[in-house]
Amino acid sequence: MKQILLLSRVNTTNLGDQLIGRSMMTLFSPLGEVTQGDVSHSVRNKIIRCDELISKYNGYNGSDLNNLSCPPKNTMGGGKSLIVRYLQKIIHPKTKNIKWLKSNYSIFKVAIRKKFDIIVIGGGELISPSFAYPIYIWSLIIKFFQKESKLVLYGVGVTECANNKERSRLARIVNLSDSVYVRDELSRNYMKRLYNRESIEISDVAFINDFDYLGERIYSLYGLTTIERIKKHNVLQLSENEYFEFTYNELCQLTKEDEYKLFYTTQEDCEVCAKFTRYCQIKHGCSFDIVRVKDLDSLITMVQKANVVYSPRMHGCILAQLSGGDVHPILISSKMKSYKDKYLNEFNILQAKTNLIETVSNIQI
User: What would the pLDDT profile of 294-320 be if each residue is shown by its tens digit?
Assistant: First the structure.
């Protein structure tokens, strides 16, 4: 039996990335025995602490809208001096790297000692600053201990916002790869321009999944995300309260025709939903229900019951597509615009699934 080392995001509270990891296992398990490694740069578990985060803001009695941007009392970040926060900014990245190395020590030993026929890295937006260090470490292990293994980047997204150091680290894995498959035209263009590497465009790996229709659709969903993500991808810089006011006005229009609940696909977005409901209570005297999603399976179940889904997250939209719902991507970034251009309108999910199966079967091990 062929031996496959599959590197994707494993330990993460980003449920979209968990969906990617599950999809990669579905695609590559038929080819042989799969050993899974992590590139998530995270040592958190896979469960979103939604009850704790939502109740934290429900129990917050403050009436100052400006303070909603700060954690309520007794949470991390409050009361720290500028010096302490400055030192944390310097030390935290190194501490994070050390924790990640320790949490992956056992799989590193396997990768060093065991012979793999193929190493697959993907899918998701892995050629980006967030994964530069884990990708770099894996590139060293592959270069020195897995020289004879075939290396494939599969279904990856590429961003252009890496600095020179991060890009140099990411380039190592790109240059070592025998073949590169990207998930959209934008990533293919970035791969060529930034790394001088030709790549093959395929469908997003999440389209390999099948989700059954559960019956009556009983509500619609609206997703929020962090103001940091919005600022990162847009020239127009909104404050968090301005973002909340814009979202409130849009939801007021949407709820005239349907019942909308707030939803999220990451732990960070869950907290934004909680802060937004508190904002609405203080500013407008109203609130919106939040669906309680703790893991990937509960997210899938919730989306299957939705009639319409608005989401600023790509895999929130893909889940809605796979469940047969009406999808409206919130275009906060070039990635979301690229998703809309490729995967909506004339897009055929069955053809996407066929495309994924064929490309995997054509990889020579």
Answer: 999 999 999 999 999 999 999 999 999
Can you tell me the distance from the alpha carbon of 183 to that of 158, in angstroms, rounded to the nearest whole number?
A: 9
Rg (CA), the chain: 21
H/E stretch holding 124:
strand 118-127
pLDDT surpasses 70 at 87: no
Cis peptide before 123 (omega within 30 of 0): yes
β-sheet bridge partners, residue 308: 326
> What is the side-by-side order of every strand in the sheet holding 260-263?
260-263, 219-223, 306-311, 326-329
- Find residue 180's DSSP bridge partners: 153
- Residue 274: closest CA among 62, 2, 60, 44: 60
What's the CA gap between 187 and 183, in Å, rounded? 7
Cβ atoms of 190 and 180 within 8 Å: the answer is no
- pLDDT in the model for residue 93: 59
**How far is CA 28 from each of CA 32, 102, 363, rounded to the nearest angstrom?**
7, 27, 10
Q: For residue 105, give the nearest of 150, 147, 43, 166 by alpha carbon.
A: 43
pLDDT at 337 over 90: yes
Please report which residue ranges of the chain form alpha helices under DSSP H. Answer: 15-28, 50-58, 82-103, 105-113, 132-145, 164-176, 185-195, 227-233, 240-254, 267-284, 296-304, 314-322, 334-343, 349-361
In angstroms, rounded to a whole number, what is the distance separating the alpha carbons of residues 352 and 50?
A: 33
**Farthest CA pair distance, the chain:** 64
Q: At what angle do helices 164-176 and 132-145 cross, to 10 degrees?
A: 40
CA distance 288 to 364: 51
Query: Mapping DSSP to helix (H, G, I), strand (E, B) and coil, where does residue 85 land?
Result: helix
Residues near 183 by Cβ (< 8 Å), separated by ≥ 6? 123, 155, 156, 157, 201, 202, 203, 204, 205
User: Average pLDDT in the 60-87 region?
Assistant: 51
